[in-house]
Every structure is written in structure tokens, then in C-alpha cells.
Design a protein that fits this description.
267 residues, alpha/beta, TIM Barrel, seven-stranded parallel sheet, 12 helices, 11% strand
């Protein structure tokens, strides 16, 4: 899978993010995955390791260990369930960055965490040299505009279906779910938009929008793992509480894959 991404020209790989089932791997497995990916990448692209947690001490531990492995940065999800206040969020992200010494990418995904990173917190954090970027998965192009109006921070889309709209207002890339299946097409779509060729970018968006949509028929990463298994890229396996797709949704996803000529695609 790493070789497929690099061959397609991606600029970075994110091990143990949401799509990597980070909540269902233990701490030892978490670090083993990061180490294996970092070793395989071997400096051919950036590695941004998912080391976020809802306990600051755990995020520090994972990030510090990842730093020893040579990752380029870490992805720090908003602490979930405990829903800290604005000052708690600010101090959490800052403490993780300063203890690990690694650049961090903030990860705003309120639909999963129950908490949005307030704009004023993003703006305060943006002034710190170790705060590299923010992954915006809140479903709002308007918020991307607001972030860019308030501070000088790189924004990455966290939603494939909104990548082109977000790029059009100043985002600089995407941390993608669909790239696990079609990395080359995602690279071309983003590259076209960044070059100002929005006709080409929109063409890719329209063609692959049904896939972007159907990869969220159920909770990520269930559909993308099912699709990758259908395409011969991995053995389909989940850990509870994640469970295989319903037969109806699987049929819908397979129909979309077939229409795009992806069913049966091999690594």
C-alpha cells in the first residue's frame, strides 16, 4: 500500500489516522505501524503520524516515540469525549508539540470528537513555529475561508467531496480517504487545482464524486476497507465495534466501483 501511494506521487502518508482504525489498536501496535510505514517510506515522501489522543500524556508519549522513528510531523485530533474548553485545547496542542519537538497538524473533525477547535484557538496556535497546518473535516468551506482570513496557516481538506471547493478558497491539499484506492487520481485532481486548472480539477471531482460519497455510506473506514478488499488491495478485516458493511450498502458501493472501472483493480 505504501509503494502504491509513493508510485502515484503523493507528498505524504498518514499512518494510524481514522482510516487506520486508530481507536482499535493498542499503544504497542500503534507504534509498530508508524515504525513499519516510516521504514518503508524511507524518506521518499513525508510521514505525518497519527498520534493524537484525548489524554495529553498519551499524545505526548506516542508523539515522542514517533519522533525517534524519524517521522516528519504528527496529526493531532481534537481530544474527544472529554470536550475541553478553549484554553484546554490550546494548552493540549501546544504541550504535545513542545514535548515532542515535532511539527503538528491540527485535526478538526467535530462530527467524531464532539468538539470543534474554535477559530480563536486555531489563530493562537498558528503563531507557534511547530504548528504546521490544520486538517479540516468539519464539512465547511466557509470555515476554511475564516481560518485563512484570521491567520497564516496551511489548511488541508479532510473530506474528499469538499477538496476542490476548499482548494478554490485557499486550502493546499487533502488528507484523503479515497487516496487509499485511487491515489493517482487524487494527486492529479489536487495538482490541477493548485495549478489553477479548475476545469480539470472539477472534471476529476465530478467523475469520482460517487466514490467520495459512497465511501461514507457507513462509518469510515468500513467502506474504504471493503472497497480495497474488492479491488484486491487487502484482506478485509475489522475490529469490534467496527463491523462489515450491510449487504445493501455493499451492493451500492460495488456498483459504484464497477461504474468507475475499479472493481478488481490490483495493487
Amino acid at each position: 500500500l505504501v509503494e502504491m501511494q509513493i508510485a502515484a506521487g503523493v507528498s505524504g502518508i498518514v499512518p494510524v489516522g481514522t482510516t487506520g482504525e486508530s481507536p482499535t489498536v493498542d499503544a504497542k501496535e500503534h507504534l509498530q505501524i508508524i515504525e513499519a510505514v516510516t521504514r518503508k517510506v524511507n524518506k521518499r515522501c513525508q510521514v505525518i503520524a497519527g498520534t493524537g489522543a484525548n489524554a495529553t500524556s498519551e499524545a505526548i508519549h506516542l508523539s515522542t516515540e514517533a519522533a525517534k522513528m524519524g517521522v516528519d510531523a504528527t496529526l493531532q485530533v481534537t481530544p474527544y469525549y472529554n470536550k475541553p474548553n478553549a484554553e484546554g485545547l490550546y494548552r493540549h496542542f501546544l504541550t504535545v508539540a513542545e514535548h515532542s519537538g515535532l511539527p503538528i497538524v491540527l485535526y478538526n473533525v467535530p462530527g467524531r470528537t464532539g468538539k470543534e477547535i474554535p477559530l480563536e484557538v486555531v489563530s493562537r496556535l498558528a503563531s507557534h513555529p511547530l504548528v504546521l497546518a490544520i486538517k479540516e473535516a468539519g464539512g465547511s468551506v466557509e470555515r476554511v475561508s475564516a481560518i485563512l482570513d484570521s491567520c497564516d496557516l496551511t489548511v488541508f481538506s479532510g473530506d474528499d467531496s469538499l477538496t476542490v471547493p476548499m482548494l478554490s478558497v485557499g486550502a493546499r491539499g487533502v488528507i484523503s480517504v479515497a487516496s487509499n484506492l485511487i491515489p493517482g487520481e487524487i494527486v492529479k485532481m489536487v495538482s490541477a487545482a493548485l495549478a489553477g486548472d479548475y476545469a480539470q480539477a472539477q472534471s476529476y471531482h465530478r467523475r469520482y464524486y460517487p466514490l467520495f460519497r459512497d465511501l461514507f455510506l457507513e462509518s469510515n473506514p468500513i467502506p474504504v476497507k471493503a472497497a480495497m478488499a474488492d479491488c484486491g488491495l487487502l484482506h478485509e478485516e475489522y475490529r469490534l465495534p467496527l463491523y462489515p458493511m450491510s449487504p445493501e450498502n455493499r451492493r451500492k458501493l460495488r456498483t459504484t466501483l464497477q461504474k468507475l472501472g475499479l472493481d478488481g483493480k490490483k495493487a
